[in-house]
Amino acid sequence: MKLTVDERFARPFASEDEIEAVMPEIAAAAAKVFARSGEGAEMLGWLDLPENYDRAEYARLKEAARRIRSDSEVLIVIGIGGSYLGSRAVIEFLKSPRYNELKKDTPSVYFSGDNLSGSDLDELLSLIEGRDFSVNVISKSGTTTEPAVAFRIFRAELEKRYGAEGAASRIYVTTDARKGTLKAFADRAGYETFTVPDSVGGRFSVLTSVGLLPIAVAGIDTDALLAGAACAMRELAVPGSANPAFRYAALRNLFYRKGRKMEILAGYEPFQLMLNEWWKQLFGESEGKDGKGLYPSSVVFTTDLHSLGQYVQSGERIMFETVLTVDSPCSTAAVPYDPADIDGLNFLAGAPLDAVNKAAMQGTLVAHADGGVPNIVLRLAERSEEALGELIYFFEFSCAVSGYTLGVNPFNQPGVEVYKRNMFSLLGKPGYEDPTGRLAKII
Amino acid sequence: MKLTVDERFARPFASEDEIEAVMPEIAAAAAKVFARSGEGAEMLGWLDLPENYDRAEYARLKEAARRIRSDSEVLIVIGIGGSYLGSRAVIEFLKSPRYNELKKDTPSVYFSGDNLSGSDLDELLSLIEGRDFSVNVISKSGTTTEPAVAFRIFRAELEKRYGAEGAASRIYVTTDARKGTLKAFADRAGYETFTVPDSVGGRFSVLTSVGLLPIAVAGIDTDALLAGAACAMRELAVPGSANPAFRYAALRNLFYRKGRKMEILAGYEPFQLMLNEWWKQLFGESEGKDGKGLYPSSVVFTTDLHSLGQYVQSGERIMFETVLTVDSPCSTAAVPYDPADIDGLNFLAGAPLDAVNKAAMQGTLVAHADGGVPNIVLRLAERSEEALGELIYFFEFSCAVSGYTLGVNPFNQPGVEVYKRNMFSLLGKPGYEDPTGRLAKII
């Protein structure tokens, strides 16, 4: 595997004996995953997805991506939660957080429908002025408010610009295979459709059509991404205390039981920022229930060593860190020589910036461990589709095992509905009346 | 004031009696601030800054901003921590997180020197290809590694492009007024310099030249920003339990004592994201010490209701939320009518999106309070320079009062140095030898 778990900076806080003691629970949780016998097992479609997917749809998806690349300067991806986090994370990790601004021969990819901000929509409309665009709307039901509103707006813009028929050839719908109003309308209107599988929840869907279409449009090798995930799938299917996912799940459950309430995912490259956000949904929605779970937080160092670094070093000891590092250098930039040596850094002249960044990481690992914060290090051999595919599967599988170990159903998210019911009631949506008038009284 | 504290969703978790009981401590902490008699009082320069600043330097700063706007398409701001978070937060809040991508008649503003990523630097270099640019390097000492490396690189690029003299007219240095190698070199080289005041720490420096030069370059009215801060300064100088900063400081200390270990700053507009980051440094570095302090986390809703929402609703009850809302609509966008009504949202057709967003907020306030999470609401009357100036000063003053109430020195950050010492030792910096060889053994 291109991914390894380095426990040296976690070990002072969790002995091998402690890890071994928790391992039977981890193994039992993993057995429930493999046997599909745990709560929510109907949502385990992601488990063998890297090998068991609809080849015909996948071929059609790659063809659609080619078409979008040839006729569009911009792809507007409309989705919320798992319908945008995965593809955005992959594009930013492999290309750049500045992908849209950089020179490239693939379309810009803007994400919409993940909020209710009018100014955000106004800006996106101004960004597509004079540029050919297509839309990929991603919604299992087709009725989620945020993407539905955005789809109304961008569909109207497409129809205004290209006519109903022209618009139809630029709208790609990723939704339920059979049910739902969006599927029915798309079929009537002649939009090309892709599938959100019934057995894959939003936060586990990045390697389905949900994530793969925008990723492919950005020119990323989806075959390699899937191959990486398939590699992890095979490796992590081998039970035992050497299994990297077992170890990660064991350590994080162990730290939780020792009173750590929060896991901070850290990285040293700005291109990791959206991957952190994807990870926060994956673990936060899977584990944050029944009054339990590690709160997922994230940082990008060295940037945030100058904001949250002080707290991590010396504040409440409520967290542990999981640090993701990419072993092979992501750039050949070096520290230039300066005859004036204003900053006294000539001792570093000629040094690869990547080596300086790695020294910052090593110095921080030691500093934070010294400060009483356990650090798990995830080493990714390189910044590549294969490696990222492995990492995605690793996190998904570790999350399932962790959740069962914690004693929750890692595949539901009942808490997400609560604000929606209140919102619909306040907005007067039929069927959401508030007979007691409690909401109106409070607000 | 354009800022008010709405406690309705905090009240079920903190009675008026409880607030009154803690108020004498808050008043004592505030008295230490006003009397400049507490620990770290030498760093209270920000306290009367909105009225007590160097008028001549400020006039020179506005002139420099005009020059940059006239001769540059891009300003590269080089700084880390408080040297970039404040100006970036203000530009994104008042203009847009997409400020650089949108059409505008002011220069793009890119931030560099806040990390050690080579790929980040490579990208920024590619973004200035063929575009005239200037550099504002911000560093009190001039020796902080991240900005120093970036300054080496962009200074070399300027000199290559414009010659030594041309480069000198495009380099603006914000640094110590007298001390330090950067100040000495800037004077020799003929760079225009601005001051990082001795009595203002990085995280409190947004309203000094540190923040104001980039903000002015982006075409933001710095007079109005300072006027807003001055308004807050006058209002918050009146002690008493009606003082909004007293109330915020009282509530957050009360929740902390009741076992809440984390404060989540939430907003409903994507343009708030970097303000959240600025706030995280302000409170995290000020309070996260001596094993104490609220861990600052942040979210942008409704986006993150679909990632961290589940956890906030039903996970561990370790947090409270502080929700920032802008009362007046930030956009006139409305929900379009759709004859097909695919999503069943025609009951909202014609409704301002801002009203839907506000209903989401109200629904979430009720949902999270019902779920056991206290919510403090900060209402900002509008998205304007004046209002944001008030908010900035409100947070700074509340932070000082909160920190003293917590029993820490809110103006130092000793923990930030620990990783640096290890890093320098690993990099072989003279004076940072590791006589025991411990680091080399661990890494």
Could you explain the architecture of this structure?
- Two copies of one chain form a homodimer.
- Chain A has 443 residues and is α/β, with parallel strands linked by helices.
- Chain A has two domains: 3-37 and 225-406, Rossmann fold (3-Layer(aba) Sandwich), CATH 3.40.50; 55-223, Glucose-6-phosphate isomerase like protein, domain 1 (Rossmann fold, 3-Layer(aba) Sandwich).
- Helices cover 47% and strands 12% of the residues of chain A.
- Chain A is built from 15 helices and ten strands.
- The first copy, chain A, has helices spanning 16-35, 55-71, 85-94, 118-127, 145-168, 181-189, 209-217, 222-236, 244-257, 273-287, 309-314, 353-370, 385-406, 416-427, 438-442, and strands at residues 3-6, 74-78, 108-112, 133-138, 171-175, 192-195, 262-267, 295-300, 319-326, 375-380.
- In chain A, strands 1-10-9-7-8 form a five-stranded mixed sheet, sandwiched between helices.
- In chain A, strand 9 (319-326), helix 12 (353-370) and strand 10 (375-380) form a beta-alpha-beta unit.
- The radius of gyration of chain A is 23 Å and the shape is globular.
For the structure shown, list the relevant keywords.
homodimer; about 450 residues; alpha/beta; Rossmann fold; five-stranded mixed beta sheet; five-stranded parallel beta sheet; 15 helices; globular
